[in-house]
Design goal:
The complex is a heterotrimer of chains A (312), B (563) and C (329).
Chain A: H1 22-35, H2 37-54, H3 56-59, H4 90-126, H5 128-143, H6 146-156, H7 162-172, H8 175-189, H9 192-200, H10 204-215, H11 217-240, H12 251-260, H13 269-297
Helix pairs in contact in A: 1-2, 2-4, 2-13, 4-5, 4-7, 4-8, 4-11, 5-8, 6-7, 7-11, 9-10, 11-12, 11-13, 12-13
Chain B: H1 2-43, E1 47-51, H2 70-73, E2 82-85, E3 91-94, E4 97-102, E5 108-113, H3 127-139, E6 152-158, E7 161-166, H4 174-179, H5 186-189, E8 209-215, E9 218-223, E10 237-241, H6 246-254, E11 260-261, H7 268-271, E12 279-281, E13 285-293, H8 303-312, H9 315-322, H10 346-352, H11 358-367, E14 370-372, E15 378-380, E16 387-393, H12 397-412, E17 416-422, H13 424-432, E18 438-442, H14 451-458, H15 480-491, H16 495-512, E19 516-522, E20 526-528, E21 532-533, H17 552-559, E22 561-562
Parallel strand pairs in B: 1-10, 1-11, 16-17, 16-18
Antiparallel strand pairs in B: 2-3, 4-5, 5-7, 6-7, 8-9, 9-10, 11-20, 12-20, 13-18, 13-19, 14-15, 21-22
Helix pairs in contact in B: 8-11, 9-12, 15-16
Chain C: H1 2-27, H2 33-40, H3 48-58, H4 66-78, H5 93-128, H6 133-145, H7 150-164, H8 185-222, H9 225-233, H10 237-275, H11 280-289, H12 293-321, H13 323-328
Helix pairs in contact in C: 1-12, 2-3, 5-8, 5-10, 5-12, 6-8, 7-8, 7-10, 8-10, 9-10, 10-11, 10-12, 11-12
The chains are: A mainly alpha (312), B alpha+beta (563), C mainly alpha (329).
Chain lengths: 312, 563, 329
């Protein structure tokens, strides 16, 4: 699993200037994506994967589960990545598996970010005892090592279906982004535009929903990307070690079967290498986008054009 | 300029450090792998290394009456009364007993105990030790691993003979009494405060080997200089490493570090046999792996549905794809071939016809009142559909793969099954208590005849109603005629009568289809003829060849000689 | 002082949560451990009668209430009695863990320190020369490597260096049949030989984050006034880089070090799994597949306590070295 790429949590990330209403923010994001090379690459990759997940039948013509062909065939035009030990077409398995992976990534990403926003912003706004309790809860979950905990949960659940994996990962990985969001919400709390809204007589909930959260959009998007990335890595790792459902078609489960059949030692390396490469590329897409949003959010991190005059 | 120098120096130091580490690691690769393999090869002249992945480290307990330690102690250190070879229809070899005889009505069995045998601490072994062993496992039922006291009433000695008295005729129990019960020394075990939990760390036995060193990672056995067979054993030392992963165990076989394997090796040609002309393997079939229907289920209780399932499964395909061809297809008569070929009821099977006949399967379903629904699932007039869940052990990836093939085969005739891969614990709980519709399982009861497995499956004494734990008849099959046949078999020692009864039992299997055998489970076995000679082979099946089969492993060790 | 006490309090609280979690989770899963043991010996030919035998031996019926069990459990934890391992019956959990722990400490400890040093160094240099060649290659490369699953890196390394080139062994900690553990040179060489690839895999996957976080905090620090002051004073560049900027930037990084331990742990588990390296992570996965619940619980607690302890240490260290943290709280 990647460690958090987007900076260290104890420092408050530089809050962007108040943007006003929502759609301006979206336009800003769109422009930022286009102008930042990393964001562009990341977005394109992600879109390709989404397309593959939506229309797998268009790209792969074989059933991923049917043991229809001769085993251990090499790469050919009929089988772009060859067949595995059971005579299944590897390319189809990867294509059809994309859907399961992306579902996990997006559902966990959204759910986790949702919980994090709820808890982080609530902690910042409710203050006092609530803040203290939520803080403690967040910090406790933050330091308990997540992967061993997930292993234990999945072990007791005797191997999870996708739903179990999603639930387990969501319930345990929201703490890091909750902390970041709380930190940013705290800095915003005393800003002028919010004081103005309070003076106007707006309700607390309105202020939170309409003024604060849209301002934090870039951080929320970055959190979503981080959480989606972790979801993919955690879920595939659990499936790889056999704690997923071996009958689902997913990249992690393909790796599980490859490992079980000693794919590397029996001359079928593609069976093990290809699904891992897919995970790596999808992960890279999320990471690049995340990195790009970091730069968008914190102008100090943006790439420096080579200065005309050399420094010291 | 100064900056550069400083960075340069740091950089060079770091790079040099890494290179150095890499080089020493690299050179130690050549030396230690060189010395590793050469010392392994040199040692093979007098040292046999076993590759049997057990999934855990050794606890260094050697009690032959404790299931976790039996495979490490029985055969190496402890011996039975008689060796019975299941692969040669029960051919016997006297071990600690030199002769035996059934009494009238087969209600008693008398063994003459061999004289001149010594325990490894020098004390002579006598008939008293044999009687002690049996009375020990009577006193502590947890040690009675094969349940012999369910049929025995008493064990007495007289001079150098031991007589077992039976409460009920149970001729097949000869295998459990004579072959599967290791004899332990009275003078050591009577002093234990709790024989059930005593780890027996310094085992004293009559067998060909002594346990000389045990660490969690490896056990070393050395030859017993006072073993009662002269000139035996011929191999001076045995190493038995504790492998926790299949891959490591397979690797050691492939590179020659281990010579006797008991492994499941995927793609065995590429992985293993192609590495040396001396590498061989043989997988003798033992018991059936079957699709087990819950006969209390209303739809599955119809024998035509079960017959249809049997005809619909392409067993060769399951064997080829799910089991990489290692486990041969089974037959509906339930007789494992070629191991028990002689018992096969050929005429009955001829009437049954081809084992893979989807057309016949569909016809059977139609005659039972089912028609193909619009969703591709067979439905009857009452609207009931042939949809079932099948429980399977998720850990056994080859069973999961086999089930995928079975699923596709049944789908072709309109039966939809959904696999439910469970953990071992959950699977056993569901199976034993009857909380399932279909299951995939094998009975680990191999013996010198097909009777042992079939008795477990078919005898109603071994079953229980749904909600209570069944001993081995999980499908809840109960047929008085079959029970009578099985009891008759247990009462006779005459091979001709036994064969006739087995024929009738096969007819029951074909008529009632209580279980659907799919493939035949095998003993895993790899061997290196370049290092040792005397291995069991299909042409000379003098014992079950797996290192984990006891006490057959002793027979293998006594036949082996260094090259 | 107050700060240290607060951190200690937090440590104890989290420890309590972890222990209670450990207790509660298995209670959601009823089952007969003897069945698990029997299934494990499935291939070795165990008869159904033996099941009953095992049930007698393991004494599965507990009649205590949940609260009663909980206090009994707490008492056991405090007295370091973690029960008996099922797989390695009758060995105790502590003795079984004891055999594996040094392998993981060696592998993870050394690799993490190396990754920290190298990663931080590269991060410093990369930030110092913003816009230079290093800075344009390093961040994108390591952003991508940080997203690669650990086990895949391990598998690729095994494929290339062990199976194709035969430079290193592909599994294990040492050759069990030919080497005896002890302070001899052959054993040591063997250990290094077997540890090289796993360590390298762990290094590759964890170094990226050090580089990136160090670089990011360095950049922020370089914009500070006192750095400008140092430049204005005419101090040599390397001195500003190390004594002024890096020294202040490294402290937030230190906190990150402690937090990322959780991730290093997960990486170690997966890498040990691929290499069958006999450490604590590998043992955890073995316990899972063997349904050895006592061992699993013991390992989870061990990992959690180690991580918590390391974080506590890092927090206290930060408090000692960085006055800003004390003031901020």
């Amino acid at each position: 699993m990647a460690m958090p790429v987007s900076g260290v949590p104890t420092q408050t990330p530089a809050a962007p200037a108040p943007a006003g209403s929502g759609h301006h923010v979206l336009a800003r994001i769109g422009h930022a994506v286009r102008s930042n090379h990393k964001a562009t690459v990341g977005t394109v990759l992600l879109l390709i994967f989404i397309l593959i997940a939506l229309f797998p039948g268009v790209i792969a013509h074989d059933s991923p589960t049917q043991d229809a062909y001769a085993p251990n065939l090499g790469i050919s035009t009929a089988h772009l990545l060859g067949t595995n030990h059971y005579g299944q077409d590897l390319f189809s398995q990867l294509v059809y598996g994309t859907r399961n992976v992306l579902i996990i990534a997006f559902v966990v990403g959204l759910a986790t970010t949702g919980i994090a926003v709820l808890i982080g912003v609530a902690a910042a706004y409710l203050g006092g005892g609530w803040d203290g309790t939520l803080n403690v809860l967040t910090d406790v979950l933050l330091v308990i090592p997540l992967f061993p905990l997930l292993i234990i949960i999945a072990a007791y659940a005797h191997g999870g279906t996708t739903l179990v994996l999603i639930a387990a990962i969501t319930l345990t990985s929201w703490s890091y982004t909750a902390r970041q969001l709380r930190a940013q919400a705290l800095t915003l709390r005393n800003r002028d535009f919010l004081a103005a809204a309070r003076v106007r007589g707006e309700r607390q909930l309105y202020i939170i929903m309409v003024e604060v959260i849209p301002t934090m959009t870039s951080l929320i998007v970055a959190s979503f990307l981080t959480n989606a990335l972790y979801a993919v890595l955690f879920a595939s790792s659990l499936q790889f070690i056999g704690l997923g459902d071996p009958n689902t078609v997913s990249w992690g489960t393909t790796l599980y079967w490859a490992e079980n059949n000693a794919a590397l030692q029996t001359g079928e390396p593609l069976w093990a290498v290809a699904p891992g490469a897919c995970i790596a590329v999808l992960g890279a897409a999320f990471a690049l986008l995340n990195y790009a949003f970091d730069e968008i959010g914190n102008p100090a991190l943006r790439p420096v054009r080579k200065p005309r005059s050399k420094r010291a | 300029m100064r900056r550069l120098t400083r960075y340069g120096v740091i950089g060079v130091i770091v790079a040099a450090g890494m290179l150095l580490a890499g080089c020493t690691a690299g050179s130690s690769t050549t030396t230690s792998s060189g010395s590793g393999t050469s010392s392994a090869k040199a040692a093979t002249n007098s040292t046999l290394t076993i590759s049997n992945e057990n999934g855990a480290l050794w606890t260094c307990g050697f009690s032959p009456l404790n299931t976790s330690d039996t495979l490490l102690s029985v055969g190496f250190i402890y011996e039975p009364l008689v060796y019975v070879n299941p692969l040669q229809n029960g051919k016997t070899t006297p071990m600690l007993a030199t002769a035996w005889k059934w009494g009238t009505g087969n209600k008693s069995l008398t063994f003459t105990i061999r004289q001149g045998v010594k325990w490894s601490d020098g004390t002579p072994m006598t008939a008293a030790d044999v009687a002690y062993t049996f009375n020990l496992i009577k006193k502590y039922p947890a040690l009675d691993l094969t349940g012999v006291w369910s049929v025995l009433s008493g064990v007495t000695t007289s001079g150098n003979t031991v007589t077992m008295n039976f409460s009920t005729t149970a001729v097949p129990y000869f295998y459990y009494i004579a072959d599967q019960t290791p004899i332990v020394p009275e003078h050591i075990w009577s002093k234990m405060s709790n024989p059930q939990t005593d780890p027996n760390k310094n085992p004293v036995g009559t067998g060909p080997y002594l346990m000389s060193k045990c660490t969690p990672q490896n056990i070393t056995y050395t030859a017993n200089p006072h073993y009662w067979q002269p000139g035996e054993p011929k191999i001076a030392k045995i190493q038995y490493p504790a492998y926790t992963s299949n891959n490591t165990a397979n690797d050691d076989l492939a590179n020659g570090n281990a010579q006797w394997g008991a492994q499941y090796i995927p793609s065995i040609q590429t992985f293993y046999t192609s590495k040396s002309p001396d590498y061989h393997y043989w997988f003798p079939p033992t018991v059936n792996v079957s699709l087990v229907p819950n006969l209390t289920n209303s739809l599955l209780s119809n024998v035509k549905v079960r017959e249809a399932m049997s005809y619909a499964i392409n067993r060769s395909q399951v064997s080829g794809i799910g089991e990489s061809g290692y486990e041969p297809p089974a037959n509906q008569a339930g007789i494992v071939t070629p191991t028990f070929n002689a018992l096969l009821n050929k005429p009955a099977l001829a009437t049954w016809g081809s084992s893979y006949d989807p057309t016949k399967a569909k016809a059977l379903l139609e005659s039972a009142g089912y028609h193909m629904g619009s969703d591709g699932v067979m439905t009857n007039a009452a609207g009931q559909q042939l949809k079932f869940t099948v429980i399977n052990i998720g850990d056994y990836s080859d069973w999961v793969a086999s089930m995928q093939v079975i699923q596709q085969d049944l789908k072709a005739i309109g039966i939809q099954i959904t696999p439910n891969n469970l953990s071992n614990t959950d699977f056993d709980a569901d199976l034993f208590y009857g909380k399932y519709q279909l299951a995939y399982y094998d009975q680990q009861t191999f013996g010198p005849s097909a009777y042992y497995e079939l008795n477990n499956w078919l005898n109603s004494a071994n079953t229980a109603p749904v909600g209570k734990s069944a001993a081995s008849n999980y499908e809840r099959y109960s047929n008085k005629a079959t029970d009578a046949l099985l009891d008759q078999y247990a009462a006779t020692a005459d091979p001709a009568q036994q064969a006739a009864i087995m024929n009738q039992i096969q007819e029951a299997m074909l008529r009632d289809v209580p279980i659907i055998p799919v493939v035949e489970a095998v003993d895993w076995y790899q061997y290196d003829t370049g290092a040792f000679s005397g291995w069991p082979t299909p042409g000379d099946p003098y014992a079950q060849p797996s290192a984990y089969a006891f006490p057959d492993n002793e027979q293998v060790l006594l036949h082996l000689a260094p090259k | 002082m107050r700060y240290a006490l607060r951190r200690l309090g937090f440590f104890i609280l989290t420890l309590w949560v972890a222990i209670t979690l450990n207790f509660l989770l298995p209670r959601l899963m009823p089952g007969n451990p003897a069945l698990a043991m029997m299934a494990k010996f499935h291939n070795q030919g165990v008869t159904p009668q033996t099941l009953h035998t095992l049930e007698i031996l393991f004494g599965v019926n507990s009649h205590q209430s949940l609260i009663g069990q909980y206090f009994g459990y707490l008492h056991q934890i405090v007295t370091f009695n973690f029960g008996t391992s099922l797989d390695e019956y009758p060995a105790s959990v502590t003795s079984v863990i004891g055999s594996a722990i040094w392998w993981t400490v060696g592998l993870v400890g050394i690799t993490t320190v190396l990754a920290f040093i190298l990663g931080t160094g590269l991060g410093i240099v990369s930030a110092w020369r913003r816009g230079g060649k290093l800075d344009s290659i390093v961040p994108p490369t390591f952003v991508i490597t940080s997203a690669i699953p650990y086990f895949w890196v391990a598998m690729v390394l095994v494929l290339i260096f062990a199976l194709t080139l035969h430079w290193f062994p592909s599994q294990g900690g040492y050759y069990v049949t030919t080497d005896t553990p002890g302070f001899n040179l052959t054993f040591f060489q063997d250990v290094v030989n077997h540890a090289f690839l796993p360590a390298f895999a762990l290094l590759i996957t964890t170094i990226g984050t050090w580089i990136l976080t160090m670089r990011n905090t360095m950049i922020t620090t370089l914009a500070e006034d006192y750095v400008r002051m140092a430049r204005a004073k005419g101090l040599p560049s390397w001195r500003i880089m190390l004594d002024y900027a890096a020294r202040n930037a490294i402290l937030p990084n230190l906190t990150g070090f402690a937090m990322s331990l959780g991730f290093v742990v997960s990486g170690a588990i997966l890498i040990e799994y691929v290499f069958n390296y006999p450490g604590v992570g590998y043992m955890l996965l073995q316990a899972v597949s063997g349904e050895d619940y006592p061992l699993m619980q013991g390992l989870f607690l061990l990992i959690t306590v180690t991580v918590l302890f390391a974080i506590l240490l890092a927090d206290i260290l930060t408090a000692i070295l960085d006055p800003r943290t004390r003031a901020a709280r």
